[in-house]
Amino acid sequence: MALFDEYQVGADGPWTTAEAAHLWRRAGFGAGPAEQRDAAGNGSQAALRSAVDFLVDFTPDDPWLDRPAGLTSGGYGDPLADLPDDESDLGRVKTPYDLISLIGHWLYRMRYTRQPFQEKLTLFLHDHFVSEWAKLVPLIDPAVIAGNDGNFPDIQQCDGGTLGVDLLRANRIAARMMLDQNYLLRRQGIDSFRAMLISITRDPCMLMYLDNVVNEKGRAQENYARELMELFSMGVGNYSEQDVREVAKCLTGETLPRFVCENDWDFSYGFDAAKHEPGTKTFFGKTIQENFAGQEALDVIDFILAERSKNPDVTGLASPYNTLPATAVYMAWKLLKFFVNEELSLDPPDEAVLELAHYLRGTDNQPYPKRRFPYDFRAALRKVFLSKFFYAEENRLNQYRNPAEFVTHLLRQGDFADLFATQFGPGTQMTLMGMILFNPPGVNGWYHGRAWITSGSLVARYNYVSYLMDTIFQGAGADARIDALLAANGGPIPDADSDDDLIDYYAERLLQMDLNAEERTTLRGFLSGVDTASPALRFRQKVRGLIHVMMSMPLAQLK
Amino acid sequence: MRSTRREFMQQLAVFSAMGFAPQFVARAAAAEANAIQGFKDDRVLVVVQLGGGNDGLNTVVPYGDDEYYRARPKLGLKADSLLRIDDYVAMNSSMTGMKDLYDNGKLAIIQGSGYPNPDRSHFRSMEIWHTASDSDEFMSRGWIGRYFDNQCSGSARPQAGMAIDSERPQAFEGERGFGIATTTPKEFGWDRGELFQDDTLFTKMNAAAGSANGTLDFLRHTTLNASTSSEQVRMAADKGKVHAANRYNQLDTVAGLIRGGLETRVYYVSTSGFDTHAGQLAAHGNLWSRVSKALADFQAQLEKDGTADRVTTLVFSEFGRRVGENASGGTDHGTAAPVFLMGKGIRPGLHGKAPSLTDLDHGDLKFTTDFRSIYASVLENWFEADSKTILGHQFDTLPIIA
């Protein structure tokens, strides 16, 4: 395990605010200067370890941010009776009722949570176990179902209703289902991957999204079976088309049996034995017996997790790497790509992928920070965040922040507030940056890396900063907002009359990266050009312009 | 070395012999005079991507084949509701706009388009269509990006490739970095806020010298592209009267930008929802009625604007769907499907061979036309480019461009 040997403060390099900033950017959403100085602490090995543990060792759900009530009750009640919260409290929505409020709800968590890694891991899983809002809503709109237009013909039909009301209702229900899935990911992100796969297979939102809700005997529906293996666990090349067909049969009857309409919407999971394909099934060269109690789905997941990689670049290696499970290799690759380096290769697998895969498949059967079970993502990521590999030069500032990260970094580091639940909030602006949370572009999630950076999406990022500055510095109540901002920004800035101090201050707060000489000269030129007569107004204009320009720099897109 | 010019003159001779010369010469002269910056003429390609895997058999329906109805007891479309092309195939009844185009000689259908050893993953198959690679070959650069790399001069603008989308398509990936993406061309550009008079400061902050960090350099390059092209994009959008309200009608936006004279060789738009595993009948019909109307409106608009002579539109999806329907009133991932070419410069009608419904590969159609032959034909005959250099292999061209 050479690559993931622990980074030795001193021998391998320092532990300063620069390293702490790297950790916060990857494991969280950046941090203000004070948090980073705390993390860097006394520059010792112990400080490094405690910073990683502080970030990574979360309890499911941040107790500081309540969860919406009734989330795990199973039934959904009458969604129309469940009116949204008012939108005070910075537009926070406890009970989302449509896509915008759903996105706002999550961004609010990302912005204010004390456990940012929890949200980061949830974001990773949200991008891994994809469901799309755009597909869900029409499927649960009773007007569509009642119209019997062929959508899900085998599901009980409703008596119709009023289109407008039903669309509202469908939005409410879809928001609740997606929120359920989101909290499932948040809760189980630190559970074993086996438990996660079982839960997501039976998650109502996923059952609808990948059509397993209508997978039944006779002619099995392959959508979920295929994506379960291709995208959620093993990766391509490790199963055959025959395996897809047989696994689909095993998953027949995994459905939402009480899907009914009108007042008691019930989208809770159940196993419908009458729709289950009888007979033995053979996949991965093994045969399982028929079972009418939902056992076959569990067998499928166990078999998937045990199935060895078929990649000759794995099987040709020396022990123990030659026997790595396909899922361990694939998940190690996905984790490393998301948290460390986009360029790492799955086929042939890079050394880092193999090493982490080997760690992932094992267990210590002991509490955190040890591995509690195989595929313990939290323990694996702790290992990553402590490693030489993670702090190596080539793995720093080599990734683009995705739009959720860009927005959250900006708001957290600058201590800015935004109107999360409204049409003008960051959720809406993020669509122009190419990311609609809860509605990724396809079942393989978002395209990462360079795909985030297009001329249009980059301009949208820059313009979000402009919008944010307008909302703070203009209109009624601007004085109070600016005072609050400066107070939150650590009180009076050292020497407010010195442009250099101002640049240093905001560079540390917003960027935590070194400005080069040219950039510094340009900023200085701007500041000295602000010539408003009133000193107070001049100071405000400098702050506003500086934030705007700094966040419109390439550096502010990196993590 | 291949001489494009010489071939061009030879073509001219052939046309001359056929009596087409005056029109063609006039057209060619106009095309050169109005050439898109960095390219030899004023021709435009619009690529329309249908994401999710379009069910080709319910698009161009082999209603004359009993096998079709045997495979699709629920999803088989009744012959009398279809828009007949000939005694074997007909178009889906929701495609009235495209059927009119077909009848008026402005639509070509290339049947059975696919590639050897088809991949049934959305992601991978889309990548194959974007890069024009073999199914076991992994390429990062796209076929359009490679066309730009090879064939455009230094004066081409970043907006030579323009995606009306939030993502830049992989097809645009190339060494020279052409191609931009925006959903809102009318507002494309810096919002300077109240403090700044112009873009100078942003440009400076984004234009620092090249660094050792490739990630950073890419950001700077993209920003530079955005800032050099943004004003031209906004101006073209204004001149072409692209409405902000039309943000969701990408093709209408494209027509406006062409009208407005944007220096763009290839436009790219996409729509999705074709992954019809369940409840396909209504969903697929709705999709095609929307797409067909959008395409017909687009073509009508180009004709009204007087730009139709120089625009060809290519419509594709990453794969077709399985021949047999599934139990949920849908179809699973399959292989070959028709590709459409639309415009005044195409050779209308049915091309290629309809795939057999009995000679299947594990329940899937065997492709009859390699989609890279379509690319090669467009590159050679529409853009007069050397397809072999771009595609890395000489694919046969098809008689699909006039």
Q: How would you describe this protein?
A:
Chain A is mainly α. Chain A has helices spanning 17-27, 33-40, 45-56, 88-91, 99-112, 116-128, 133-139, 142-146, 163-188, 193-201, 204-209, 223-233, 241-250, 295-306, 312-315, 326-339, 351-361, 377-385, 388-391, 403-414, 426-432, 455-473, 478-488, 499-511, 517-529, 535-550; strands spanning 254-255, 270-271, 281-283, 286-288. Among the domains of chain A are: 17-56 and 314-395, no CATH class; 403-557, no CATH class. Chain A has a two-stranded antiparallel ribbon with strand order 1-2. Chain A has a two-stranded antiparallel sheet with strand order 3-4. With 402 residues, chain B is of the alpha/beta class. Chain B has two domains: 1-33; 36-391, Alkaline Phosphatase, subunit A, CATH 3.40.720. Chain B contains twelve helices and twelve strands. Chain B has helices at 4-17, 21-33, 66-71, 96-103, 122-131, 143-151, 200-206, 214-239, 250-259, 280-305, 371-382, 387-391, and strands spanning 44-50, 60-61, 83-84, 90-91, 107-114, 161-163, 180-181, 266-271, 311-317, 337-343, 349-351, 369-370. In chain B, the strands form two sheets. In chain B, strands 1, 5, 6, 7, 8, 9, 10, 11 and 12 form a nine-stranded mixed sheet that branches. Classes of the chains: A mainly alpha (559), B alpha/beta (402). Chains A and B meet through helix 12, helix 22, helix 25 and helix 26 of A and helix 5, strand 7, helix 7, helix 8 and helix 10 of B.
